[in-house]
Amino acid sequence: MRKLKPKPHQFWAWCSTLTILAGAIVAAFGFYPLYCYIFLLGNSSLAIISWLWNEKSLVALNTGLASIYLIGLINLYIN
User: How many CB atoms lie within 10 A of CB 1?
Assistant: First the structure.
C-alpha cells in the first residue's frame, strides 16, 4: 500500500482548526462579539489554505462561514 504525501501548509491548517475550536469555546462562554472575530480569523485562514489545496468544498464552506460572521459584525456596528 502506498503512503500518502502530506499536504503542504498542514501546520497552518492545524492552527486554523485550533482557532475555530477556540472560537467555539469562547462562544460557549457567551463572549459576544469576541467569538465572531475568532471564528472570522479561523474560517478565513482555513478558506485560504483550502484554496491552496484546491479543495472547492472546503473553500465554499469556510468562505461562507467567514462571510456570515463578517455580516454579523457589520450588522452589530451599523445598528
Answer: 3
